[in-house]
Amino acid sequence: MLLVDGDDTSEVSIDEALKRAEEKSLDLVEVSPLSSPPVCKIMDYGTYLYSQKKKDRKQKKASKQTETKTIRLSIRTGMHDLEVKAKKAKKFLEDRNTVKVVVIFKGREMAHGDLAEGKLREFHTLLEDISSIEQEPRRQGYQMTMILNPSK
After folding, report:
1. Rounded to a whole number, what is the distance in angstroms from the first to the last CA of the chain?
2. What is the per-residue pLDDT across 43-94, written as a single tens digit (0 to 9) for each?
3. Given phi > 0 = left and psi -120 to 50 = alpha, else beta, which region is 25?
């Protein structure tokens, strides 16, 4: 067996490796069992596990999961209000979030699906430089939705 002890690497028997690890009050850890000869290392296994968990937590904290943010519109939403909402959606898209744009129908507006689709297309034209359409405008009951992804 090949024993790694700090900077020292030597080929020893299993009994000798266990004896050296016990003298130092450390653990004998098999690093590469499939190689020929197998490679073992003398280390404090508890400290190693602790540092690995700490690295994993730090890595998980650093990675950000994407969220779906919702922007609500109406058929009667004016151009200025549309620009304000597009500015907010632009911030969401720059943060790598997906944006779900929803047009809510109220009362007799249900008959004007073409106006709602036009409003969604108009909204996308304000953001087409930084977004792409993931889901085309689709009617779902009293609302019409479109999903935008950040492009890049």
Report:
1. 51
2. 999 999 999 999 999 988 877 778 899 999 999 999 999 999 999 999 999 9
3. left
pTM of structure: 0.60
User: Which pair of structure tokens corresponds to residue 104?
Assistant: 């809510």
Q: Which two tokens mark 152?
A: 């890049």
**Both 50 and 18 in a single domain?**
yes
The domain in which residue 12 lies consists of 2-61
Provide the sign of the torsion angle of the four alpha carbons 54, 55, 58, 59, taken in this order. negative
- CA–CA separation, 133 vs 140, rounded Å? 17
> Which one-letter DSSP state was computed for residue 95?
T
Strands (E), 12-130: 27-32, 39-43, 68-74, 98-104
136 in the same domain as 118: yes
Residue 42: CATH number of its domain: 3.10.20.80
- 86-136, pLDDT tens digit by residue? 999 999 999 889 999 999 999 898 898 899 999 999 999 999 899 999 999
Handedness of CA 91, 97, 101, 104 (dihedral sign): negative
